[in-house]
Write a structure and sequence with these properties.
Strand content: 15-25%
Number of helices: 7
Helix content: 40-55%
Radius of gyration: 26 Å
Distance between the termini: 32 Å
Oligomer: single chain
Number of domains: 2
């Protein structure tokens, strides 16, 4: 099981047994290939070897460091060998410790960016495979528009109480789309205009009481939103706090709360889970 450290105290936490690295509160489980090709050369042979293995390295925000190792050593009484954990004295190695800290952060950053880029490309590819505006895509659009208007419900949102009430109505209309319009074709679904658009319209009619306050989304419009929706899906991998430690989780909006936690994870299967959810239409529930 992955061990975590309090982000309020630590800047960098490396667990060599779990192959996890936590930097500034964000933890990543490194895959075996990357660990072997990019992390091991940083650790071996000074910090990690066959009979003197690294357990963990911690760099605290106050500048101090700690390293635990486990050594294969002989019991002088009975002659048996066993692994014994101990705290390694880093005092003689200030330059080497600083180099370790810097290089691990560089590799953690490289690994994280690679994961994020792979996710963006795969999500974009998943949507590019189909040019048909189906109900899953309509629901994704609905969920994206809900997320895009979350700011209007914040206590310090720079809008009047009257406008805030209109935004509440707008968001409820979006939530009602699946149950109110599920019997019609996806390309005929009506979306409400925003209160901001209504204000510019200036038709003197009560907001959302007229057919002109709704619009359909043709494929050409959806295509323009595709990149933003891909970003929305990437953001659906959010951050929860468990015992002060941020943990990745995958979410899918629902009608009541807007976001429903699907699965906590600190592994590298986030993308596969999202693509499965897209295929199953779970983001449109």
């Amino acid at each position: 099981m992955t061990t975590i450290a309090s982000p309020s105290e630590t800047s960098l936490y490396l667990n060599a047994f779990d192959k996890t690295i936590q930097y500034d509160g964000v933890i990543k489980t490194i895959d075996d290939d990357y660990w072997a090709s990019d992390i091991v050369p940083i650790l071996y042979p000074l910090w990690d070897s066959d009979k003197d293995k690294l357990e963990l390295f911690v760099q605290y925000k106050d500048g101090t460091s700690k390293m635990n190792k486990t050594k294969y050593q002989r019991n002088q009484k009975d002659g048996t060998y066993k692994w014994v954990s101990y705290q390694f004295d880093l005092t003689p190695f200030p330059t080497e410790v600083n180099d370790l800290y810097t290089r691990v952060i560089d590799k953690w950053t490289e690994y994280r960016r690679g994961q994020e880029n792979d996710m963006e490309r795969a999500l974009a590819s998943a949507f590019a495979q189909s040019t048909i505006l189906n109900w899953t895509k309509v629901s994704l659009m609905r969920n994206f528009l809900l997320m895009d208007s979350d700011w209007t419900q914040l206590g310090d949102a720079p809008i009047s109480a009257e406008d805030k009430a209109k935004w509440v109505t707008y968001r409820q209309k979006l939530r009602d789309i699946p149950q109110d319009q599920k019997v019609i074709a996806a390309n005929s679904v009506l979306f409400p205009i925003t209160p901001a658009k209504h204000a510019k319209l200036g038709d003197g009619k009560t907001y959302l009481d007229d057919v002109s306050h709704f619009y359909t989304i043709p494929q050409s419009v959806y295509s323009k939103f595709s990149n933003r929706i891909v970003t929305y899906l990437a953001l659906a991998i959010g951050t929860a706090s468990i015992d002060e430690m941020p943990v990745n989780y995958i979410t899918g909006p629902n009608m009541q709360s807007g976001l429903t936690t699907v699965k906590p994870t600190t592994g590298s299967d986030d993308l596969d889970e999202i693509l499965k959810m897209i295929d199953a239409g779970d983001f449109g529930e």
